[in-house]
Fold this sequence. Notes:
- This protein has helices at residues 22-29, 33-36, 48-59, 65-80, 84-97, 102-114, 118-134, 143-159, 163-176, 181-193, 197-210, 215-227, 231-244, 249-262, 267-280, 285-297, 301-314, 319-331, 335-366.
- The longest helix has 32 residues, at 335-366.
- The relative contact order is 0.07.
- Helix content is 73%, strand content 0%.
- By secondary structure, the chain is mainly α.
- The protein is elongated and about 85 Å long.
Amino acid sequence: MGARTQKNCPPKSLFDAAHSLTLFLTVLVALSLPAVRVGAQQNDDVTAARIAQLVVRVRAAQADEATRTEARAAAYALIGAARYEDALSLFGALLERQPRDASALYGAALANFNLQRIADAEQLDRTAVGELRNTADPSGALRNQHADALVLLAVIEAVKGDNAAALATVQTAVKLAPRHFDAQFTLGRALYGAGDPAAAATAFRAAVAIKPDDARARFFLATALERAGDEADALTAYRELVALAPNVAEGHLGLGVSLVKLGGDQLAEGVRELERAIALNPDAYEARVTLGRTLIQQGQSAAAVEHLKRAAELAPNNPEPHYQLALAYRRLGRSAEAAAESGIVKQIHEARRQTRAQPTRTTANND
Length: 367
């Protein structure tokens, strides 16, 4: 399949949008809540008054483990509700009394990360990793918490641009807890970004084996298989994704593009899948441009124009939809419009050449 748009594919670097912390929120909020929350509660119960009360109780000299457990559960419930500052007030109180509380350290790191306080998050999370590494754990009860902290550390390292360290850290997490979904999933993304889609597919397979109903992991698996050149398994993976999540546009997109690529008897089904992807997500750029290109090849240039015009609106600086529009207009005998689209293609290529040349000229001037 052709290169996907950023929102529809695994990232090209370790985490393609490392500057956008929102990208990681889904993964990070869910990392370890079931492991550390005892007596999970509804977020509605965690009022400001209750938070203040818990802070006082935790700070009291007579605070016992039951109180601390209640405070941790409330703090993680607040993280799940994206109430990070409130969560920090509880984690802070816990750490005042027990500075080596690994669960509170990790929770505070997670809250700080989502508040974009990366340095604070890293310091807290590294401390949590150290505490968990040095804690005797003969039964393996802390293994998943340790892996949680390592996965968060890997994401922090990726945000800082240290992809090599991030990959090594998440590999440690997987070695420690092979059945840890987020560790396997994050390893897959890291390996994909490092240019090893075959190894990424292995990690995504492991993630799918742990959570078969996770549509996100199945999509990444299919895309990694496709990038690795395993077209047959990729097609199977896309079909499984569509069966699991029929209302997820990306599954139909991946399946449609794969079928169109195969051509022949698969072409009609591929077109239907692309149309389904667009029905679910009218802003799916790749579905639009692929369907438009395919319709032109089938002699349906008039039908292709609608999709290609929308693709050009979605990605105005991409020459491909304009090139395909020029071709469609030419076949429809609309010469002036074809010439205008060809002119846009030339302008985009020229702008790209100038952008690529700019650093060279700057360097030359500095020399």
